[in-house]
Amino acid sequence: MKTRVTLIPGDGIGPSIADATVRILAAADAPIEWDRQVAGMAGVSRWHDPMPDCTIDSIKQTRLALKGPLETPVGEGYRSVNVALRKTFDLYSNVRPTRTITPGRYENIDIVLIRENTEGLYIGIEHYVKIADDPKAAAESLAVITRFGSERIMRYAFEYAVSHGRRKVTLAHKANILKYSQGLFLESGKHIAQEYAGRIEFEERIVDAMAMHLVIKPEQFDVIVTTNMFGDILSDLIAGLVGGLGLAPGGNIGTTAAIFEAVHGTAPDIAGKGVANPGALILAACMMLEHMGDRERGARIRTALEETIRERKTVTRDLGGSATTDQFTDAIISRLA
């Protein structure tokens, strides 16, 4: 029986890398039936809405989506279409796995960053204290942290560690300065950690010191859990340790829906040229398969991708080669046969 999944190809290079990913999943005989929808600028072009009702309705029905990069239209009422999707479906957990594929400056990196996805500074409560054109203009943003939101992301992080055979959870915070909001987050983490004592090691680190240690000795970290903005920053830092966002997938997971995505941008400079690297979306699809309970197939696709990259014969230019998107995709498919 096939699982129905909403496919949002996205903008820029999105349609190209989405088609490549769909081809690879088909070659692996993934039991998926796609419901193609649009959002971002593609949504504006077709429905005059960056978040069309038909796309929202599709995700409500399938409860599962694979999404390419989206461009947020200027002046359309959304700070970010991606953030709006997370809020609409209460996708409270952002999961960003990062691992070494080809040895470079760092080796043996295998870190999963789990970021609280709906609270903190990104909740978007801000205003001017004085109007913007005032010489003494001032603006204020509120970081909202709740015990409910903190405890559920902590529990998700520990459950992820247990189910994936991980050994340690590190909580990154700034409670030494932000004693109430970050203090509540830290307190919640310590409370949930007690439930997993003896099974999962727990530690807490001040976020700025942690950024330094991620650069000095990243292999000491396993699962990291943190607040919304810190997670946004640290996840890109970690991706940089293994070469950048070209191979960075992400999952946005809630209780009623999950959206998996390539976390890089739309890359308009190479859109339509057939040279984009689909690796991040392919890895996001592997995360989706795992979420669906199809771990073996996800692992098989991931292995085919990694072996193709390590061989370096047929890879896109951002990976040091000269292959087109289709040639890179064909090379991965050949390893699935």
Concise summary:
This protein is α/β, with parallel strands linked by helices and 337 residues long.
Specify the CATH architecture of the largest domain.
Answer: 3-Layer(aba) Sandwich
| Structural shape | globular
Query: Can you write the helix and strand succession as a string?
Result: EHEHHEHEEEEHEHEHEHEEHHH
Rg over CA atoms, rounded to whole Å, is: 20 Å
**Strand order across the biggest sheet?**
2-1-3-12-11-4-5-10-8-9
Describe this structure in words.
This protein has 337 residues and is an alpha/beta fold. It folds into two domains: 1-89 and 256-337, Isopropylmalate Dehydrogenase, CATH 3.40.718.10; 93-244, 3-Layer(aba) Sandwich (Isopropylmalate Dehydrogenase), CATH 3.40.718. The chain is 40% helix and 22% strand. The protein has eleven helices and twelve strands. It has a ten-stranded mixed sheet, with helices on both faces. The relative contact order is 0.16. The mean pLDDT is 94.
Give a topology summary.
Elements: E1 3-8, H1 14-27, E2 32-36, H2 40-47, H3 53-62, E3 64-67, H4 81-88, E4 93-99, E5 110-116, E6 120-130, E7 138-144, H5 147-163, E8 168-173, H6 181-193, E9 201-206, H7 207-216, E10 223-226, H8 228-241, E11 249-253, E12 258-262, H9 279-291, H10 295-311, H11 325-334
Parallel strand pairs: 1-2, 1-3, 3-12, 5-10, 8-9, 8-10
Antiparallel strand pairs: 4-5, 4-11, 6-7, 11-12
Helix pairs in contact: 1-9, 1-11, 5-6, 7-8, 9-10, 10-11
